[in-house]
Sequence to fold (99 residues):
Amino acid sequence: MVPGKLYEYFATGRPILGLTPEGDAKDWIATDSRSRTANPCSRESISSALVTMHDEWSRGLTVESVRIPLAPTFTRSQQTAQLVEYLKQIVASRTTLSC
Fold:
């Protein structure tokens, strides 16, 4: 399960600290070298990620907003296009099955 806010965070182009369990959200956040994930139940994990992110920020490594390549995948138009393609495949498969 991926929180809807994650898509908005991707759109900002800013680094993300994701307090997430294993799964898609964690994997997607990991595609951005500036972002970090941490175990939501571990103070040490969260603290370590925050220290790392602050260090990178203080060295000017994360000053600019940069959208990761994965971000456009989640735009409304892209999601709609993917849904249309999926529905076309379903209709096509049912049409061939009924003939």
